[in-house]
Amino acid sequence: MANGTPEIQYYEHELNIRRVIEQSDLQGLDQALIICDLSSLERKLRLWQKLLPRIKPHYAVKCNDNPVLVKFLADLGAGFDCASKNELKLVLGFGVSPERIIFAHPCRPASHLKYAKEQEVVNGTVDNEFEVYKLSQHFPNSNLIVRFKSEAKKALCPLGEKYGCDAEADAPALMILSKALGLKVTGTSFHVGSGCSEMEAYDRAVEKAENIFRFGELIGHNMNLLDVGGGFPGIDDELFEEIAVAVNTSVQLRFPDERVKVIAEPGRFFVEAAYTLVCKIHAKREVRNENGRLEKLMYYLNDGIYGVFAAMFYYPEELTPVLYLDDVESRPKFKSVMWGPSCDALDKISDNWLLPNLNCGDLLGFRNMGAYTVPIASPFNGFDVPETRYFLAKRL
Ligand SMILES: Cc1ncc(COP(=O)(O)O)c(C=O)c1O
């Protein structure tokens, strides 16, 4: 990366991970490697625009704050959901205008609010009366977006215990309080939970949003922004299509007035599929029982749960390694335990994979590692967070 600008390598048609690996000196590299396909982000944005034309996506920066990805999405015209001063700085630094940003954290430190005020990022979420008072003190001219709780029955990571007020009891009270303090409520938001797989969740939430809009208008707020949050899948485009139909139908039914601006805060949707992590086995042990029979094989990879696999704790999706070997199917399989590189015994990636007998230096690929991975990863125990290399299709 020269002068903060990454080197981007171009490919024809499809990114061939195996070829990238063959052309990279991974044996000479002790760190794991992330292969980032920027074109995947562009494809996702086009898919979103095709299936949800009324809803403007505001990429949730928390999901992956890699500046290269953020700039790429900024240049494509996406909006942004920022949760902190530093995320705001990052996005504004790429020339994104404040109107393209929602400060979507309902509990913000005063200094972050001060920065948002200086930068004129006026749209921000709120879900309790203490924050309403805080806003009246630190950012009274902002637009308050009341975040309410409405959770999917099935989601990888529910968020409702931490954020979102009760739509029936608390939201009207917050709007009355705001009115009394001379503050503007201009919209409402929700998040059904990250990795949502319950279609009906969106309509349940949009119905509550409609009631909040009605109440807000009744007491004189100028309600004009509906934020349908996140929850959109990162790798299952068919599920996304079904969700898009459900969201469109609900929004058109309950918010037919096109003057209401509708936005969303997808994170996982944009970036999950863009990353492939390539790890190398750097050590190996055989575990035998008292009769000397092989019980299992243990491998030590150059990334683990304190690194990019940190997301496994938060979003326990099934991981399937890709082996870059020619005759994988025909080889006998053994119970295999995968450890991360640190000295910590909790640093275990899996203990139940069936794999052929692998060797030190063999490589394992993990697809779809772009969401909630690198921003959480740490160089714990002195093991570096993987380097990222960027690829882009010559023409989509
Ligand atoms: C406020 C907010 N918006 C958006 C997102 C991104 O949602 P998702 O992971 O479903 O894409 C999150 C994730 O937790 C969030 O907390």
From TrEMBL:
Record-annotated Orn/DAP/Arg decarboxylase 2 N-terminal domain positions: 39-271
Catalytic activity: L-ornithine + H(+) = putrescine + CO2
Keyword Transcription regulation: no
InterPro entries per UniProt: Ala_racemase/Decarboxylase_C, De-COase2_N, De-COase2_pyr-phos_BS, Orn/DAP/Arg_de-COase, Orn_de-COase, PLP-binding_barrel
Top-level taxon: Eukaryota
Alphabetic keyword roster: Lyase, Polyamine biosynthesis, Pyridoxal phosphate
EC number: 4.1.1.17
Reported cofactor(s): pyridoxal 5'-phosphate
Gene3D superfamilies recorded: Alanine racemase (3.20.20.10), Lyase, Ornithine Decarboxylase, Chain A, domain 1 (2.40.37.10)
Pfam family of the protein (one): Orn_Arg_deC_N
Record CDD domains: PLPDE_III_ODC (cd00622)
Pathway(s) where this gene product acts: Amine and polyamine biosynthesis; putrescine biosynthesis via L-ornithine pathway; putrescine from L-ornithine: step 1/1
Keyword Lyase attached: yes
Complex and partners: Homodimer. Only the dimer is catalytically active, as the active sites are constructed of residues from both monomers.
Family, similarity comment: Belongs to the Orn/Lys/Arg decarboxylase class-II family.
Protein name per the record: ornithine decarboxylase
Organism: Drosophila suzukii
Record gene name: LOC108019680
